[in-house]
Amino acid sequence: MTVRVRNISRLSLVSAAALFASVVVQPVQAQSANTTFFVTSAGPGNGANLGGLDGADKHCQTLAAAAGAGARTWHAYLSTQAADGKPAVSARDRIGKGPWQNSKGVVVAKDVADLHSASNNLSKQTSLSEKGEVINGRGDAPNRHDALTGSQPDGTAFAGSDDRTCKNWTSSTQGAAMLGHIDRIGLRDDDASKSWNSSHPSRGPEGGCSQADLRSTGGDGLLYCFAAN
Q: Is the distance from CB of 226 to CB of 77 less than 8 angstroms?
């Protein structure tokens, strides 16, 4: 009889443990499915040559799917400039209406206007990767806080002939791309250094758009990805 009681007790403990595990795991899965914003944990690896907007969107979609959030339509927060008879595209017009939240369920912006205002909730602690990880910032080794955006502070595309998109995200050599600081920290205490989407252009000895050039200023070819639906 004692043996039976012990066996029943062991079975009860096993069942309780399994039930507890299911309760713990399910919210994590739900949070992943409800993610509508993340910073890519890695870039495509070819500098600022992302294969254009389509290639960048595909990269966001692939990473989102791997993290359990692939049911949504994902777009990279990138602008392009007018070229070859095609009009400019503004990043703010590609990302849906919001609200957007990270993989932990924290809302980073209520809508497009909020995202581009001083009241948004973007910071090193909230601008997480699709894996829910904090991106290395200034003071970390290596620093990876530069995000490709090609955008002005209000999320619109640049006009004029100065390249700010590495030839509309097709160059890994010559050109320049406007970068934002994911951690919102720079070398100075000014608005540009604290800007998440328009801090400074890329530069470097290989032309400004290579992977090595992006890393030389504290980046790694990372992107902001937003669920557009």
A: yes
